[in-house]
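Title: Comparing notes on inverse folding

I've been comparing how different people in this forum approach sequence design from structure. To keep things fair, I'm posting one structure and asking everyone to reply with a full sequence. Here's the target:
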């Protein structure tokens, strides 16, 4: 018996590396041609891991239904509800709460959410094969909230760092990475909004206007939106 891994993106590549390093038999497929009946999973597969972009999951489901494959199938999406797999007889969710940037992943420390207890034995078998700690059961709605929180924690914070780096390049300034690191550490160690400083917090309209004039056009709406958000959150805090 083998596992079927579908997808060649960042998650698919990381799982491919994990299967290989654990010496676990698997087939690595692409779902792009499934609707034409090409490259379908083996009937001897223990389970199909759909490590593919959310928008392609419905197409994969339609193909699997068309060919009546009675194999456990689970997607790995944080935002896609379980009911997208409803046409399949044995379906669940296997969602690692992690941002995959390369194939080197500290799997032993990662939180993995499961959905659909009917597939408990399949999930447990997969974790045993890949030497992973047990997953945690979570429904689609709560998983979606964790996924959104992860976007704030990872995607948005990384984007702000990217904008900070772009502005340094734009102005030819020296980096202030120690300030950035200290700010993140302090914010996580306390209630971040109580530590807020700066012109938006002080409602310093003259400095805010000066900054807007200094910024390149593409950064101005972001600066304004963030400044207004800081002021609103601070006002809410004062009302409490």
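Reply #1:
Here's my take.
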């Amino acid at each position: 018996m083998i596992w079927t891994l579908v997808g060649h993106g960042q998650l698919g590549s990381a799982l491919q590396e994990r299967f290989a390093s654990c010496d676990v038999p698997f087939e690595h497929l692409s779902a792009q041609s499934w609707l034409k009946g090409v490259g379908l999973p083996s009937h001897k597969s223990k389970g199909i891991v759909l490590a593919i972009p959310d928008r392609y999951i419905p197409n994969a489901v339609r193909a699997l239904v068309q060919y009546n494959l009675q194999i456990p199938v689970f997607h790995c999406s944080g935002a896609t509800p379980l009911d997208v797999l409803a046409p399949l007889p044995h379906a669940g969710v296997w969602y690692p709460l992690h941002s995959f940037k390369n194939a080197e992943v500290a799997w032993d420390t990662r939180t993995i959410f499961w959905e659909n207890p009917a597939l408990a034995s399949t999930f447990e078998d997969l974790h045993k094969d890949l030497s992973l700690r047990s997953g945690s059961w979570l429904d689609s709605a709560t998983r979606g909230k964790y996924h959104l929180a992860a976007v704030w924690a990872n995607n948005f914070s990384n984007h702000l760092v990217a904008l900070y780096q772009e502005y340094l390049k734009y102005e030819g300034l020296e980096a202030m990475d120690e300030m950035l690191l200290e700010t993140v550490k302090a914010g996580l160690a306390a209630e971040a909004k109580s530590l807020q400083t700066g012109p938006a917090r002080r409602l310093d309209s003259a400095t805010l206007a000066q900054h807007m004039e200094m910024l390149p056009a593409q950064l101005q709406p972001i600066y304004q939106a963030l400044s207004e958000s800081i002021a609103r959150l601070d006002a809410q805090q004062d009302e409490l």
